[in-house]
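Hi,

Apologies if this is the wrong queue. I'm a grad student, and the batch job for Type II secretion system core protein G from Methylophilus rhizosphaerae produced an output file that my downstream script rejects. I'm not sure whether the problem is my script or the file. Here is the sequence I used:
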Amino acid sequence: MKHRLKQGRQAGFTLLELLVVMVIIGLLAGYVGPKYFAQIGKSETKTAKAQITALAHALDLYRLDIGHYPTTEQGLAALNRNPDNEPKWQGPYLAKGVPADPWGRQYLYRYPGEHGDYDVWTLGSDGTAGGQDADSDISSWQ
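Support response: The file is valid. Your script probably expects a header line. Output copied below for reference.
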C-alpha cells in the first residue's frame, strides 16, 4: 500500500482575518474605555464625600467635648492632637488620623463657616475652585 502525502494549505489565519479582529478589538476598547475611566472619577468623588462625612462626625464629637469647633488656625489636626492643651479634649476623634483627599491633598477647613457652623471641602481632581464632574469641588454643605 502506498501512502500518499497530502499537500495542502496549512491551517492558520489570513492577514485579512487578523485585521478584522484587530479592528473589532479597537472598537470595543474605544467604547468600553471611556465608560471605565468615568467610573474611576465617580469612585474618587464618592470617597471624598464619605471622608467629609466622617470628618463632620468627628468635628461634632469634638464640639460636644470641648464646647466649640476647632478654629481655622487649629484646623482638622485638632481632631487627633490636643490643641492648646484643651482640658476637656477626649480625642483622638479619628482612628487613623485626618485623611488626605482622594487626589492626595489636604481637606480645607474653615470655622466659622460661610455655609454652616464650619466648612470642610476639597477642590476636586484639578485642585482649583469650581469645575465639573471629577474636577468639581466637594464640600460639607452640598
